Amino acid sequence: ALQLSTKEAKKKGLEEDTIIDMALWAIPIGLLGARLYYVLFERGYYLQNPGQILAIWNGGIAIYVGLIAGGGTLYWYAKKKGTSLALVLDI
Predict the structure, then answer these.
(1) Own/partner pairs, 4-12, CB within 8 angstroms, 24+ separation
(2) What is the distance, to the nearest Å, from the Cα of residue 57 to the centroid of all Cα atoms in its chain?
(3) In the structure, what pLDDT confidence band is assigned to residue 44 with cuts at 50, 70 and 90?
(4) From residue 79, how far is each of 15, 63, 84 by CA, in Å?
(5) What is the pTM assigned to this prediction?
(6) To which H or E segment does residue 75 belong?
(7) Can you tell me the distance from the alpha carbon of 67 to that of 25, in angstroms, rounded to the nearest whole number?
(8) What is the DSSP string of 1-69?
């Protein structure tokens, strides 16, 4: 998806690095937001088992919060760089 997005960005006059930089921010923040929400939602379990907080391989991320956090990051980054959010979403 990242490779396709960078090619599409180039066609639409946006630098490839902008898309890569957005992904480098949005993906980790989205994952962190998804896990943080899940841990807070199940805080009783994680207060008793704090060693399991980072164990995402055992399951437990809230994908919708990940999408919201990643989308918010895209919005922030586009605004910071002066890029049209509509263009970024179209790409």
Answers:
(1) 5/91, 8/91, 9/91, 12/87, 12/90, 12/91
(2) 18
(3) very high
(4) 15, 24, 8
(5) 0.83
(6) helix 63-81
(7) 13
(8) -HHHHHHHHHHTT--HHHHHHHHHHHHHHHHHHHHHHHHHHTHHHHHH-GGGTT-GGG----HHHHHHH
